[in-house]
Amino acid sequence: MAIAMASLSTTAAAQSADGNAVEYVDVVGQAVQIDKALGEQRRSDRIQSVVHADGIGQLPDDNAAEALQRIPGISVERDQGEGRFVSIRGIAPDLNSVTINGTLVPAPESDRRAVALDVLPSELIQSITAVKTLTPDMDANSLGGTVEVHSLSAFDHEGLFRTLSVEGSHDDNSGENSPKISGAISNRFDIGGGRKNFGVAAAVSWQKRKFGSDNVETGGAWDLSDPAVPRLEKMEQRRYDITRERLGVGLNFDYQPDDTSNYYLRTLFSRYSDTEQRNAAGVEFADPLAPGETGDAEGYRELKSRKETQQIQSYVLGGERSFGLWTASGQLGYSKASEKLPFGIAGAGFEGNDDFSNAGYTNPGRPRLNIGAGFYDPTEFTLDEVEAESQKTTDTEKSIRLDLARQYDWNGHASEIKFGGKISRRDKRNELNVWKYDDFGSAPTGLDSYAGSNARYGLGYFGPGISDAAIRRLLATLDHNAAYDEEESRINDFRMSEDINAAYVMNTIDIDKWRVIAGLRYEGTRFSASGTGINDGEFEENNSIKRYHHWLPGLHGSYQLNDRTKLRAAWTNTVVRPTFEALAPGFVIDDDEASFGNPDLDPLKARNIDVGIEHYMGRAGVLSAFVFHKDIKNFVYQTDLAGNGRWADFSEAVTFANGNEAKLYGLELAYSQKLDWLPSPWNGLLVGANATFSHSRAEIEGLGTRRTIDLPNQSSKVGNLMLGWENRKFSTRLSANYKSSYLAEVAAVDDANRDRHADSQLFVDFSASYYITPKIKLSFMAQNLTNESYYIYSGRRDLNAQYEKYGPTYKISLTLTDF
């Protein structure tokens, strides 16, 4: 069910008392979009939820991730307060898949499979579907579900359509104002003797957003020798100043020569650049301190400054044709994701000249540093080392798919047999170069030569930041060849390839009120990885090839209780490959310490059961409930193998391993409805609510012990509440999104007290739209009204690992449609 809505303008004509037509604006956007989404959900053979764009191709939120968080079972991982990665039913984003117009979207980042959906501007998207039960004709590469992104088409409109939108936003934390502009145009043409049978649609969106955040973190550096009085070993204040620029372009062609065939070309290009400057000011206490205690401390200051640019390209050529009882469809797909980091400052570190006395802190959950004035004096710090790096990652996927379906009659029951196959070739490469400078010759090394203005920091006093320009001027005078770090560079370079051949057969049959789909999918995978490791100072090549085969049966059923009520059930089997970080071939073995990836990991397999009921009622109305259960084998976790096997004499051997089994089960509830039977003005009310309750259990082992944990990133409670109102000219929405705390990072198997947990979050947003004329809409949006923070704690909720605060954002926009 979609309860994320946008506003839609429709123009109608009413008769005045004298018989003349009177033009007015009828704003029915929220109800219309819920109806569209529920219609797709109701007709689907799969259990799914949909978010639909409005008539001008705009999602109700800034990006795909934030729009999806409004539907049942979905939560998002945020970066600097912006929704980025989507979690489905508590399953981590890396274990779900994303497709654009039917082709897989690869991941720009070197270590992840998850696709950051904030890379995709909302203006390029017509609808997004979260598929929770996969049919055999779908790729089986997701545990939680598959996010299907559909871009706009000229056949979404009757004829010529144009829209233009301009927006300004204000970030409360940084005080910065940011622009955005977007537009779309589409039309249908007569070709080959047909009428309105060829369509062209184009859209473009550009945004440059400046904002910031304040952070204080300990990294979990707590001395717990006396559990009653935890003592802090070190802490760090951070100020982030960020500029994110997004450019998206879509150009789509559709050709429907007759009622039996259609052909299409879908293209999408998205570029996302993230410019970040992070100033840090930290201390390491000579002796661990409790809140309010004081002592000596070493101080330091550090700058990180870099610009990352991610690009996603997607090209899909396909078509479908029916001839008699047969239907044939096919698709060629090419997608490429990349991330480029030109020469960036990974860390410019300044050490304090002497220890600072009488240093301490208050509040272990949000530590506030108490220290003498010398800590804020640039002359008290000397440049120690500058680390710089450049990186390029590419992830390319090529695929070809062919499907054949034939309708037939089986004992008077309508049936369809469908079969087909897909060939997919994926190639991921990473190249990293690292430089470490610690010889600065005759250049000045005092912080006073590189200090900038005082940092804008909302969690206390920070003092002067470090100038990016000054550090870069210094590096320009140094010997880059002498500073090149071959070890760090080579061990992070890799190439990984996944070749997947798939085939399936499935049969659909309607028997009275039953609709049943039974099928079988086969996926054969060849995985190869090549990279370099270092063993006590000597480089070693590491090449690995792994093959595996999976037969994945599936059964879907739905029963129409009445015209408005449907029962659904599904038994599905899926398989997911581990993250590229876990599979990385690089390794470091240094005396009795080792860290390495594991290219020999087995893929994760899941057996899934879903059962539920949907009751549709009135306009934009649904009441639904689903239970689900997932039995997951070979889940992947980070562990320490020291003391076992080859690593028996090692003090540390950190890698990734397969766990035996994990279980996840839960309940999804959803409700939405427009209350149009109420008297005016209450008949403009819309209400929506959904909640997902889940529980997980997994076992990990290592260091001669084992213990039970929750699945990482799995929130046991996720919910949304929406209250909207609309009439013919005005529309408004107040929405709240909540997710409970979850396990963010697993510590050593024998040290559960140092597991890191993310605290619960509640985000509240408000939006309103007003039609000045039938073609001009004015909109206002306020995001994060609760000024929600991101808080990670170490073991106990009162012990900080990371606290970050963003502040609210306000936006105002003007949209012209069919001008």
Automatic annotation (TrEMBL):
**Residues forming coiled coils:** none
Q: Taking every annotated instance into account, which residue ranges of this chain make up the domain TonB-dependent receptor-like beta-barrel?
A: 351-785
Entry-linked Gene3D superfamilies: TonB-dependent receptor, beta-barrel domain, TonB-dependent receptor, plug domain
Keywords, alphabetical:
Cell outer membrane, Membrane, Receptor, TonB box, Transmembrane, Transmembrane beta strand, Transport
Where in the cell does this protein reside?
Cell outer membrane
Q: Write down a Pfam family by its short name.
A: TonB_dep_Rec_b-barrel
Q: Which positions fall inside the TonB-dependent receptor plug domain?
A: 43-146
Its placement in the membrane is given as: Multi-pass membrane protein
Q: Name one GO cellular component term.
A: cell outer membrane
- Family note: Belongs to the TonB-dependent receptor family.
Q: Which NCBIfam families match?
A: TonB-Xanth-Caul
Q: What is this protein called?
A: TonB-dependent receptor
**The species this protein was found in:** Oxalicibacterium flavum
